[in-house]
Amino acid sequence: MVRAWYMDSSDEDQRLEHHLNPPQFVNLEHLYATTGVEYFKLGDESGIDREYLEKIKKERNYAYEDEITCSRDCLPDYDTKLKIFFKEHLHTDEEIRLVVEGSGYFDVRDKDDKWVRIEVTPGDLLILPAGIYHRFTLDSKNFIKARRFFIGEPVWTPYNRPADEMDCRKTYEEWLQSKDSPKHQATAC
């Protein structure tokens, strides 16, 4: 099962283990309510449930996919690319990743602008909503292979923070505010 927790605000390397003692873990309901991030478990290192994946792809209109491997041996200009991935940014479309091998971390900002770290391992499908500030880093193993899915043609452009005036960010913030309405508070963690 995926693990997610609040990160502390130190500048120290937090890839090796949790930096808060003890870490403040969050469950999937809290993660979704405070960030809009969706999570699906589609398998593990032994394989992916292809039927479940095809169902999700069809329901969400994912028409294009590719695969990326992040490792020193496979990713051209590895160090520069990792710095780009780790710079806080947003996208105008959802970011969808299915981990096939290896592991890493997606860090996302919650509605209070705090970092939540999400550890991903084989079989984890993560969907980050358009407009969410986020970043990615590898863990200490320095290897991940993931499939990327898109609704239409791939949109790769990251917009570094601040990008608050973008329409996708405004739409995302409106959605987050709707989660604070009395109707939604009863279902929050």
The biggest beta sheet is recorded as: 5 strands, antiparallel
Shape: globular
What is the succession of H and E elements? EEHEEEHEHEEEEEEEEHH
Distance from first to last alpha carbon: 18 Å
Spatial strand order of the main sheet: 2-1-10-9-12
Number of strands: 14
In percent, how helical is the residue content?
10-25%
Class from secondary-structure proportions? alpha+beta
- Gyration radius over CA: 16 Å
Unreliable segments of 5+ consecutive residues: 182-189
Report what the structure shows.
The chain is an alpha+beta fold. It contains five helices and 14 strands. The protein has helices spanning 28-35, 50-60, 78-86, 167-178, 182-185; strands at 3-6, 24-25, 38-41, 43-44, 47-48, 64-70, 89-90, 95-102, 104-109, 115-120, 124-128, 134-138, 144-150, 159-160.
Give a short overview.
The protein has helices spanning 28-35, 50-60, 78-86, 167-178, 182-185; strands at 3-6, 24-25, 38-41, 43-44, 47-48, 64-70, 89-90, 95-102, 104-109, 115-120, 124-128, 134-138, 144-150, 159-160.
Write the layout of secondary structure elements.
Blueprint: E1 3-6, E2 24-25, H1 28-35, E3 38-41, E4 43-44, E5 47-48, H2 50-60, E6 64-70, H3 78-86, E7 89-90, E8 95-102, E9 104-109, E10 115-120, E11 124-128, E12 134-138, E13 144-150, E14 159-160, H4 167-178, H5 182-185
Antiparallel strand pairs: 1-2, 1-10, 3-11, 4-5, 6-13, 7-14, 8-11, 8-13, 9-10, 9-12
